[in-house]
Amino acid sequence: MPYGIIKVNRAKCLQCKEILISTKENFEVTCSCGKLTISGADGYLERTGKKGIDFQELTIFDFSNIPEEELSFPTEEEIEDIRKKYETE
Ligand SMILES: [Zn+2]
To answer: What predicted TM-score, i.e. pTM, was given to this entire model?
Structure first.
């Protein structure tokens, strides 16, 4: 399944509420409470957390470069299956 281009690589630490943005491939940025570290840029996403980390993914993807016929999204049924799987674990 083709994925979109990563437009803005960012995540928010829910403990200190800081929003981190990584703009370079070999760049690491850590929030002020020290629990969340993100790295990567438009090529990949990486998140590293300390124990008890809680964060929100805020990355923006750009799908505009992918031809419509190559885009695929899960159906309602597939989403339901995934939801059930995680509810029972
Ligand atoms: Zn933090």
So the answer is: 0.68
